[in-house]
Write a structure and sequence with these properties.
This protein has a seven-stranded mixed beta sheet with strand order 3-2-1-4-5-9-8, sandwiched between helices. A two-stranded parallel sheet has the order 6-7. The protein has six helices and nine strands. α1 (about 10-25) packs parallel to α2, α2 (about 40-50) runs parallel beside α3 (about 65-75) and α4 crosses α6 (about 175-185). By secondary structure, the chain is an alpha/beta fold. The mean pLDDT is about 95.
């Protein structure tokens, strides 16, 4: 297979192993997953190949990633990766282009988006997840976060400053701010997992499910 269309993220290559370890511990053997901001498609291919009982729906705001997404899935022989769809979390309904999701998702997965997107995208993500998650479904977000009462690693401070220099609307988000937006959408933080390179994997569920 030609690799000409494959886009590559070194960060995705580094973190996909530790993230998969968490997903394997968290998820049942079968289910349906929706990935937000799939980017290169490396995560979709890696996770779907290791979760053969799951269907994996990749999406991205930019169709320029679609060839790479399908290419990585083909290379990994991950036949449970569905054709990518265009999705902008700020637009409703999900996805775009007149398509429609069928049954709710057991997992919605979003890595490294919140800090390189306008703050409004956090509300878009949480509101969309609340609409499209099954009653017992989970939203998993991954990336760097700031936390009240927890010292921020120097690398994350420098990363935050560089992001804000590129775009004043970008930046590492406070977990407390994200949780407030999630609560407004009916979701709550159910688990926090420290990850390598000063990242966190956060698990969000419907607030009503844990009452």
């Amino acid at each position: 297979m030609s690799t000409a269309s494959l886009q590559h993220s070194l960060a995705a290559e580094r973190n996909q192993g530790p993230i998969l370890e968490q997903l394997l511990a968290l998820l049942p053997p079968t289910g349906a997953a929706l990935e937000i901001a799939s980017g290169t498609g490396q995560h979709a291919a890696h996770f779907a190949a290791a979760l053969p009982g799951w269907s994996w729906q990749p999406t991205d705001q930019h169709a320029t990633h679609f060839g790479s997404i399908t290419g990585w899935a083909a290379q990994a022989r991950a036949h449970n990766v569905l054709p990518p769809l265009r999705l902008d979390v700020l637009q409703t309904p999900w996805p775009a282009d007149g398509a429609a999701f069928g049954t709710p998702f057991d997992l919605i997965y979003c890595a490294n988006m919140l800090h390189i997107a306008p703050w409004a995208c956090c509300a878009g993500l949480m509101q969309g997840a609340a609409r499209h998650l099954s009653p017992a479904g989970r939203l998993v977000t991954y990336g760097p976060y700031l936390e009240d009462g927890v010292p921020t690693a120097p690398g994350n401070l420098a990363f935050d400053a560089s992001l804000r220099a590129q775009d004043p609307g970008w930046g590492i988000r406070r977990i407390e701010d994200v949780a407030a937006v999630a609560a407004a959408a009916g979701l709550q933080l159910a688990a926090r997992h420290p990850m390598p390179a000063n990242n966190l994997l956060l698990v969000w569920t419907h607030a009503a499910h844990n009452r």
